[in-house]
Amino acid sequence: MSFASGALIILAFFVGHWVLSVFFQTFFLHRYGAHRMFTMSKGWERFFYLCTVFFQGSSFLNPRAYAILHREHHAYSDTPGDPHSPHVYPSLVQMMSKTKDRYTGISHRTITPEARFEGGYPEWPAVDRIADSWLTRLAFGAMYTLFYVKFAPHWAFFLLLPMHYLMGPIHGAIVNWCGHMYGYRNFDLGTADKSRNTLVFDFLTMGELFQNNHHTFGMSPNFAARWFEIDPTWSVIRVFNALGMVKLPEHMQTMRYPREQPAMQVAHAAQQAVAAIKATAASATGGSAAVGG
């Protein structure tokens, strides 16, 4: 085999593993598991569960632990309660170390999270026990290594192997660090949240680096808000929806840029006030009638 052929095979394997791993992280663990932005049948849920196990491989992330950590991140974004904020932890290594400790505690149920963060995520205990075992993780690592032994045309390509072993946490580190440190902001949330959009076409993490958009419209399955932003995972979700593999809600949340203008906000507040007055009046009328009866 020529050097060029071997290099092409290794690079295709690396890119394929990267893309499929981060896709199932954002599609299944994040948008479905943590947020339930769409629904799917139990059969498809099991199928995508197994896909997540296979493509994350040695760095498989437990859906329950992922969902709880992510919900904590939204609730306490960039404050001391945030499990992975670059504005709380001074270094990437410290942030990821603290994230690992909390993830492990939640996954092994030695840490009890707030009740409001529990529930609504996919669970498959039998598969979790197998996928989370060291034997399985080592087996996936061995398969990656043997693939490189077979096709790598030079020892330098073996420097990519650690990224295969730790693919999931690497994606998390990129999203949580860069997505709150670098890039532009479409929206000011008026809180401690410092989320940013790092790329306009997020080919690197399949839409995850539109953090500012996502933190503003937390239930929108499309993470792109402006005309020039491209969220690749949203395109795949639309195809899955058309094929009946997932079902998008009839009244799903959508990104709006810019958000409601002040005049629209005033009008909306006025409508709410009128509705409240009518409801109060109706309640008072009903209460009087009941007393009179």
The tally of strands reads 0
N→C terminal distance:
94 Å
Mean pLDDT: 91
Number of helices: 11
Helix % is 55-70%
Helices and strands, in N-to-C order?
HHHHHHHHHHH
Tell me the strand percentage band: under 5%
Return the domain count: 2
Shape: globular
* Class from helix and strand fractions: mainly alpha
Unreliable spans: 261-270, 283-293
Supply Rg: 23 Å
Largest sheet: none
Q: Overview of this structure, please?
A:
By secondary structure, this protein is an all-alpha fold. The relative contact order is 0.12. Helices cover 57% and strands 0% of the residues. Residues 261-270 and 283-293 have low confidence and may be disordered. The termini are far apart. It has 2 domains: 3-193, no CATH class; 262-293.
Features:
globular; 57% helix; 11 helices; mainly alpha; 293 residues; 2 domains
How do you describe this structure in short?
The protein has 293 residues and is mostly helical.
Outline the fold blueprint.
Layout: H1 3-34, H2 42-56, H3 63-75, H4 92-107, H5 125-131, H6 134-151, H7 161-165, H8 167-178, H9 211-216, H10 232-242, H11 262-292
